[in-house]
Fold these 4 entries.
Entry 1:
Amino acid sequence: MSKKVFMSIGAEFIHAGHIAIIEKAAALGELTVGVLSDEAMMSYRGYPLLSYEERCQVVSHLKEVAHVVKKDTLEYDSIIRELRPDYVVHGDRWKADVKEKILALLEEYGGELVEFPYTDKKEFELFDNRVAEMRFMPEVRRGKLRRALQLANRPLRVLEAHNGLTGLIAEKTKITKDGQIRQFDAMWVSSLCDSTAKGKPDIELVDMTSRETTIDEIMEVTTKPIILDGDTGGIPEHFYYNVKTLERMGVSAIIIEDKVGLKKNSLFGTDVEQQQDSIENFCHKIRVGKSAQTTSDFMIIARIESLILKQGMEDAINRAFAYVKAGADGIMIHSKSDKPDEVREFCKIFREKYKDIPIVVVPTTYNVVTESELAECGVNVIIYANHLIRSAFPAMNKVAHMILENERSLEASENCMSIKEILTLI
Ligand code: SPV
Ligand code: MG
């Protein structure tokens, strides 16, 4: 009986280097290839350019491949236990502690790990770089939010970014927990943080041209989808053109809030005068925005301020239903309560009518709530809306004070990264 051989592959693109290793694997026996699911791809390399089904189709047509199975995680545990392959084939470049785990699993029944050297050919490297470059292109990035919403079996985590550097933090920060890589799924270009970074108040004073410059700066160095905090969206006639520009740039979604007049930050609540738009006018704005779109990728998400402005749950729900009817691709329910109760109640009522319309939340004040609790409420997107700028400002302020205090920078230096680190950071 021929030996059972297993190897895993992302199969976003298959070049001669992959074929070489597949051929070697097949020479050992009957080859089963585990194709990484979209979710697994997302967790380590970012959104796959081709879907799982498309990648599977390619692999299953290779004559060396006897079976194709779905590999849902980067871990090998379940697949090795189920399949009990005689050989697991892997390239000789390893991530984290995977190799030790595979060896331990194989030892349980006498399976063997076969390592083949990676092909270090210049042309494959150039090819990989070209693929990586594609992730920066607007048409590739734009649809990633919608795709991620369809793929993810958990709420998407979104981190605030207000320039290239914070964009890089949102792009690159990763931890490994419970054997899974955890990272942010998208970026939020907050009006509060974009304004604060420019030393301006959050009152729609930083105009759209300037906001687009911030977005462009972030886009130049990142590949993850961008959700723009579009404030009120302005007058519908302007909103129409702004949707076109943002969509062309590769922004994935804009969230507009149902307020009019001089917009102030929602977290002021009713401490300052703020006026909510009429349902009719706001629905008109949504319709105008939707009519400007040319692709099905872009999303317009309607943000409801009823709970912020103490207008009650019924008003919030009525608005949500009306905005969805007007064409909103998602609903953001905002709250400045210190508990998640009102958001939970909103989600419960909304989900009775709409099972699939994405719900977005910004748990800044009710930050006791966990991601899994929000998942249970039916939330799809969790925005950490201001945490990078709020953590950076006190650190910078402290150092400025220390320099004044000591009339030199020696004492402040221990609060700073080293010159070597800053020079090699980028
Ligand atoms: C922002 O980040 O600018 C927001 C969210 O609009 S909030 O500050 O909570 O209003
Ligand atoms: Mg804002």
Entry 2:
Amino acid sequence: MSDTIEKVKCLIIGSGPAGYTAAIYAARANMKPVLYQGTQPGGQLTTTNEVENFPGYPDGVTGPEMMLQLQAQAKRFETDVRDGWITKVDFSGDVHKVWVHDEKEIHADTIIISTGASAKYLGLESEQKYLKLGGGVSACAVCDGFFYRNQEVVIVGAGDSACEEAHYLSKLCKKVTMLVRRDEFRASKIMATRVMNTENIEILFNTETEEVLGDGQVVTGVRVNNNQTNKKHDIEATGFFVAIGHKPNTDIFKGFLDLDETGYIINAKPGTSKTNIDGVFVSGDAADHVYRQAITAAGTGCMAALDAERYLAAKDAAFEVSTPTYN
Ligand code: NDP
């Protein structure tokens, strides 16, 4: 344990579009933000090749490049960007306490949580290989579907996300093959019916992914297994989409913040970034299982910084009123 406790006005946890946007706003409001980058500096976008739907980039930009630019913009206003991640918090008292790597203790007047969410993957070696190569594996149809126009793709999953993404892909791609591991959907009836009624979506029930096939650089197909008959076959495809859910990175906040059953942080006041703890705000995918876009994360990052600034201003005003002045 370190014996010196650092005190900061605004601590930002996470370095995706939400965290850096919060940092830009907080820094320009003179809140001297300290930002811890977390275990995946730059967040989920660093695994995306080309970002074409973030306004302001008419020619597109790669995910890693965009994150470097956001970081540079936050640093320009003197955000203190640090390596490392928060391993523990204590929001039970008046002071918001966090620990970096279980050692360094920080007390923050305001905290902005931008820890994001992680897409779940199947974990197959071949899936991870082409994901890392940027060669045709994706967990975001809205981000990457455009690159597969008029091509054939495969999507895994049977929940609302998988149905929504399969339907989105069906409008761009020649054919979408959907792999459902049980004999029924998990998705709501309306979403499942929609994919079943879409002509260029083929649904294979009781079907699991054996291997993502490729030429060493890009995906060329998927080997699947019918778990009832044990028959395997190969499907030709240039894209392999995984839509089996997300896990919000909120484990360290359990017991302090209100979370839903999946772990998403619940906004104490809808339409704001407030959590159930005064002075602790949330932005980005840690509280959003619906939109999950870089631009929406950035928007809520801005909201969190403005809410934090107003919280501090109200606290200062209350302090001035309650402190007698002597002439
Ligand atoms: P869900 O947890 O609802 O669904 C995950 C799906 O992935 C399940 O069908 C599951 O199969 C399947 N799956 C999990 N692991 C594997 C695996 N290893 N191999 C193959 N399949 C696998 O996640 P979603 O992201 O779909 O939805 C999360 C929440 O967000 C839900 O509450 C949903 O309703 C909501 N949502 C709402 C939307 C809307 O209303 N527009 C849009 C998107 C999401 P199995 O069924 O066999 O367990």
Entry 3:
Amino acid sequence: MQIITEPRQMQAIAEKLRLNRQLIGVVMTMGALHEGHLSLVKLAQETAGIVILTIFVNPRQFGVNEDLHRYPKPFEKDLSLAKAAGVDYLFAPEAGSIYPENYQTTIECGALAERFEGALRPGHFSGVVTVVTKLFNITKPNIAIFGEKDAQQLAIIRQLVDDLNMDIKIIGAPIVRDETGLAVSSRNSYLSSQERNAATILYQGICHAARRVADQERDLRAIACEIEQMIRSTEGCRPDYVSFVDEKTFNPVEIAEAGKEYRLLLAAWSGTVRLIDNAKILG
Ligand code: AMP
């Protein structure tokens, strides 16, 4: 595995790979690698000949009161995990080489980015699509894998690629969960063991929704309220939002139509840790 920190060097390598007709798959992460990230690498290996993994804690997607400065950075561990997973190139730039002193350009998102995470984290998605675009230009992928764990982000990136005519195939990868159902996340390392137990309420909420819909409950707003109540009655937990949305538009849906697929979005706090989760629910 080759480790690269300079955008120009990464670009030159990617260009050469493309001239040699290699299919490049990219997986973008903020590091603190876990099973979720590694499942994306595996999917990239199954669909592309060369896998580039990027590790970059993008300051522009963190709000002022968010966890940029305490975000975990176990770089040596990440290196060995990436190597063991068979990553071909690890691109891990410094913030200064991605955003040099005179850096000015930001990509603006549209309606998809206005609700849910976008409403609660102003500027977050603009920071995400700006860095994703830069990393696309640097790694020149044919294929890019993103996790369904960040479902709204995935939808926004699909929109970005369509809107800006980027010739990149976007693949969504299923959510990896631990044995308790908690979606694996770098931020789970902030949780105390009590908070971690409490956090499983998100997955319990998802299971509750699946059962209620299977039992012919059509009122999705009512089910979302039940889940919010479940979260509120769990010690140390409070919901930010629970909502069923249309898969494509992310517009909230109140009444389920039989046979239609929806996405249930959840965001909640366990103690001081904010967690997001989601699931596809068949109406
Ligand atoms: P992050 O490092 O949190 O920015 O995540 C990098 C990529 O990994 C994103 O595409 C995430 O959606 C994806 N990802 C994070 N956690 C999981 C998970 N539990 N299962 C699947 N993909 C994930």
Entry 4:
Amino acid sequence: MGKNYRSELVGVFGCPIDENPTGVMEEAGFAAKGLDFRYITIKVNEGDLGAAMQGLRAMNMRGINLTIPHKVEVLKYLDELSEAAEIIGAVNVVVNNAGKLWGENTDGKGFLTSLKDAGVSPQGKTVMILGAGGAARAISVECALAGAEKIIIVNRNTQRGQALVDLLKEKTPAAVEYIPWQGAIVVPQGTHILVNATSVGLFPNVDQKPEIDYDTITADTVVTDVIFNDPNSLFLQAAAARGAQTINGLGMLVNQGAVNFTLWTGEEAPLEIMTEALKREFGL
Ligand code: NDP
């Protein structure tokens, strides 16, 4: 048998994409495991996804991540979807199984793992989610599928908020409530897990936090943020000041990357090495 000089190719399609740090974490994982995989950060403009997906097939790439603006559009180029991806209606990772393209959404799974790592489970709990965009959709569906008793959606844009509420009611067993975002939102008593799934607080806007009544957060609330590029966001600082347990967005990012790693390579992801690589990248 001759030597194999061919690397397995994975990566990400998105636009803008230049500042996406995922490759740092995945490449660190491949190196640690001695896997001949390459993660390539690829700019694919809106409207060019069809050609890019054809390219993926032509080059026998093992898989791809999708980010803005391709997570929904990619569905029409796939052969199969996971249950969660089908409900969420968006895909952030594709696996190429000998020409058959399978799509999954691992954002919400990464979120659930970061909860679990902190000793928290949504089962039987009330979960309040700020936002109704892609991250909120993935998180709310996974929490509902993991047995959350009630999901409360809070969103500024009523149409988007209501669409997520309708989807959760139709496709999951959880009880669902919608609160339109007007003024400082009160966190209802009995809310176990509060999630910031908006983009408020995202770097460089680290001086902003979602408009809620922070005095309604108690020591019994677990407060989590999807923002990862300021792991000590103002939102989490305000929650910690009320005695709440807090979980930042780094765990979600690393854990979804770890699930993707396993889907592509079939190997367990070296979580610590991937986390360290990201932290170094963020100067933490
Ligand atoms: P979307 O653009 O799909 O959704 C953005 C959401 O934020 C919408 O619900 C929007 O509300 C809300 N929002 C934006 N600005 C405000 C504001 N000033 N006040 C209240 N609500 C606001 O983005 P995504 O869901 O894809 O991403 C959201 C965040 O999650 C990003 O910061 C992203 O980096 C992060 N993320 C983190 C991941 C991780 O692994 N840690 C994974 C995926 C995403 P409206 O509908 O009213 O406009």
